[in-house]
Structure formats: C-alpha cells, structure tokens
Amino acid sequence: MWHKVPNNANNANSRLQGRTVYTVPMPVDLAERKRRAIRGELSEVALALLTDRKFESLTIDEIAAAAGVSRRTFFRYFTSKEDVVFAFLDQWAVRLAADIVARPADEDPVMAVQTSFRQLTAAYDDRALALVRLVRETPSLQQQERINRDHLRLAVVNALAERLGLDAERDMRPQILATIAFAPLDAAMFSWFGTRSSEEVGHLLDEALGAFEKERDAMVAARSNSGQPRKAAVRQRVRHRARSRA
To answer: What CATH fold (topology level) applies to the domain 2-226?
Structure first.
C-alpha cells in the first residue's frame, strides 16, 4: 500500500515527510497494476540506456522515444530523470515486503528479512549493478538513493509488524528487528557503494551475513557464560541458607 507521510507526522523520518511511500503489501486494482507496469518498463529502458553512458548525457526525450511513449506520458508517471532511475526500487520494496510476510511462520523474523533480501538481490542483480555505478558517478542521485533506502526500511518495518501481528505505530519491536536485520545488509551495501563495487553484491551479502551470524553467536555465548558464575553463586547462597536453617 502506498500512502503519503503527513508533513507534521511526529514519528516520521524528516526525509520521508510529505512523500508517498510503500508500507504494507495489499491487493491493488487493475489501474494501479498498469501504472506500476509502465513505471517499471520506463525504468528498465532508462537503466538499459545508461549502461555505458553518463547520467547527465541522457535526456528524457531519449527515454520516452526508446520506450515508445511521448514526453507528456513520461511526466504522467515521473517528475524527473532521478525518479525513473530508481523506479525499480518501488518493485523491490513491494516484493521484499510480500516475501517477508510470506516466509514460514516459525522462522526468526530477522532471518526472514535477511533471506528475503538475499534472494531478491539475486533477482535484480543486473539492474542493481547499473544503479550502483550511476550513484557512484552522479551526486544528484546520491541523495535520492538515501531516500529510497529509507522507503525500503519503512516497508520492512511494516511487513514485520504485519507478520508478527503488531502495530508498528505503538510497538517498537518491528523497528528494532528491522534495524538488527539491516545491520549486515547495510554493511554489504556500504562496501559495494564504496571500495568494493567491482565485486558481486551477492558475495558481499553472504560475507556480511556470515560475519553477523558469527558475532551474534559469540555474543550469545558470552552472555551465557557470564551468567554461569552468577547462577552458581545463587545456588551456593540457597544451599548456605538451607544449612543455616537446619
């Protein structure tokens, strides 16, 4: 579902206020499905044209001509070139949220997010590669990329809330779980948008998820071990009291 974040929303990220964002997966009518299909097609055309070109060199007229639509039709679906480049992330958010909700009910929610994200990245790998190059080379796209990342995070929070039967406006658990789930994903994306852009994003995700699981297990083990002396001390005090009473 897409809705506009109120400008005076107290709990909304300041970059999202006044923008239309995706929240939770819901059935859409035929007109909306057609609108998304056309947006997706225009975005595909733009990314294909930008495979080996600078962003500034591509005109809206060229995108429209390649897609077989008029300039007027283009502006019916997008307000700028920046918007059309990132349109496929709309589909990404829709699919990611739906996949998270559809994961097995007994699966850990953090793992549900990470598994869904990993599978979806593989499906969109070619477009993601084109996007990362454009973002690295084009300052005007860098701010938009951060905004779209916030949109994606909001979609995950609401998908987790639906999955867990919680109210994301009142319960902090979906936000906390989303933050935990995104930690290794953000690390992989940071490396990919940084000094490791030539590597396959799937490998970076696997590396980050492996590091996350290793550190998580280490923290659990450390916490368990630190609790053993306290438990032993408690048992000793209980035995001492029992002997004293005897």
So the answer is: Tetracycline Repressor; domain 2 (1.10.357)
